[in-house]
Amino acid sequence: MLIVGIILILLKHFASHQYFGARYHAKFASPVAFYETAVEAPALTAKEVQAGEAVAAAVVDEETVELLVKFVPIRGGEFTMGSPVSEANHQDDETQHQVRVSDFSMSKYAVTVAEFKRFVDATGYCTDAEKMSNTKNWRYGVSGLRPQSEEDHPVVYVSWNDAVAYAKWLSAKTGKHFRLPTEAEREYACRAGSRMPFDTEENLTTNQANFNGNYFYNDHPKGVYRQNTVAVNSFTPNAFGLYNMHGNVWEWCSDWYGKTYYEECKANGTVTNPAGPESGAYRVIRGGGWDYFAEYCRSACRNSRSSASRNSHVGFRLIYCN
Ligand SMILES: [Ca+2]
User: Fold this and answer.
1) Residue ranges of the domains in the chain?
2) If you measure from the C-alpha of residue 15 to the centroid of ligand 1, how many angstroms do you get, rounded to a whole number?
3) How many angstroms is it from 85 CA to the middle of ligand 1?
């Protein structure tokens, strides 16, 4: 009975889905009605059981499909990385230089609490914070243990090591090579064609991103300070369809941080797929966070943390290459 029940639930869940054959779909055009009547119906025929088993086998693929639709393909190209000295809050590690990046697909969203939970539930993975018996770990948000309502917020208190472990698990599970973006891929995706400080051009408002609005950009008006993360699909996405590339949480990149790395790249002319210095002390984080000033959300702004560090304003998003 248990098996039949599981099959019924699966049938109910997927009966209207495109993965079903047309014949099957026609038979159970109303999944809810089917479910209600089937509860009292006699045992399923062998054919129906077989169909249910096919659905059960397809669930892994279904999860993969649901995951992959969150990624947008981005056509590579050449761009000017860094910021001009004339840009307000320009820093001396932002030397402009020419970079070429290959095609890649990037997640529209930062990895959520719910997604990270799936990883931990499946693997029993212990994050760096938990290894150190830190009282705050990925189950926590800005103001304590995450309530159910924050499951679609970006996961925080995850280290670079934790982010890489998640990417490896997802790759093994799906057969695709998921990884953190390089700093160059991250800036290319964040700019989405813009050469201005933000993908929103010369200013970023708190109607466009989640940051500490008390510290507005340049001489623009003050905004709000939400003092928390927001759902990963908040605000309008950039021209590439990516959400919260500015603000909400800083996002880990794969590179070691190199303060003079851009100068070295510039000396080599146009560089292709730069991946950062070969070694370092800190990993790059990009994009600014909910408790940071607008200037830190700039497309060119660089920041870094050690590979094991974690806190309430750093999360991550993944890319994959075909
Ligand atoms: Ca972000």
Assistant:
1) 2-59, 72-111+139-320
2) 36
3) 24
